[in-house]
Every structure is written in C-alpha cells, then in structure tokens.
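Re-run with default settings, no changes from the original entry. Doing this only to confirm the output is reproducible before filing.
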Amino acid sequence: MRSKYSGLQIAIHWLVFLLVIVTYCAMEFRGLAPRAYRPYFNIVHVSCGITILVLMVTRLLVRLKSPSPPIVPKPSPMLTGMAHLGHLVIYLLFIALPIIGLLMMYNRGGNWIAFGIVMPHAQEANFDLVDILKNYHVTLAMLGYYVIGLHALAALAHHYYFKDNTLLRMMPKKRV
C-alpha cells in the first residue's frame, strides 16, 4: 500500500487551495477597486468557482476509486470519524458553493462572463430566487473560512501534536 496520495490527488488538492484563495480574494478586494474594474473581479471569481467545481468533482471521483493511504500511527476511531466528517463537509461545501453561484448567475437573466466567454442565462430574471441563492452562497462562503481554518489546524495538529503522517501524505514529492 502506498504512503502518499497520488500525484493527481495532491495536485488537485493544492490547485483547489490556490483557486479558493484567488476566489475569496476576488470578492474580498472587489470593493477596493474602482467601479470600472469590479466586473473583472467578478469574472475571476466566477471562473475560479467553476474550475473549483470541476476539480472537486474530479477529486471526489478519484477518491472514491482510490483508497486513502493509511495514517501511521493509526489515529483513534473518534479522530478518524471527525476527519471523515470534515472531508465530507469540505466536498459538499466546495461543490455546493459553485453550483449555487452558477444558478444565481443564470437566474439574473443577463449576460455574465466566465473564462472570457458570455455564458447562458435565463430568458427572464428571477430576482427573488437570486436573492435566496445569494444568501445561501454568502453564508456558505463565510462558513468556508471556518472549515478551511479547521482543516489546516487539524493537519498541523496531526503533524506536530499527534506526530503522524497525515500532512505528509498530501505534500508534493521533495526534489533531490
């Protein structure tokens, strides 16, 4: 049995991490930009969100096909259960957030752009639905800050406190 995740799993993990940072920054810093530049922040946000969705679904399919490498030394059943719950929340969150965002953009009824391409939209706007979706999107995005923080804290706790290989399993290979 292998001691690390596959190169594909590691690459997707860290690419999603970087894309999540860019996606969050695009929204957090949009308000600091002159009005004329704000649509570009939206394009970056939406394009990264779609990419995250594709990568997370790919990662989920790969994970379902490939078993996780074992954690050495083996953690308690409680820690294992918490880890499974945490990963489930991460997968649900970073699949649901982009889907809700896409539904929100579609139902605005006007042109919107992702990857420099005008995307399809509803013939008529449904702003009541858009408002509901936006509330869910913003709430889940705020929850994302805590989930990401707990995930990082758990990885560091495994590495420095429990002294197991949890963090090392997801690290890229060292160059010699």
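Helices lie at 7-30, 38-65, 77-107, 127-160. The radius of gyration is 19 Å.
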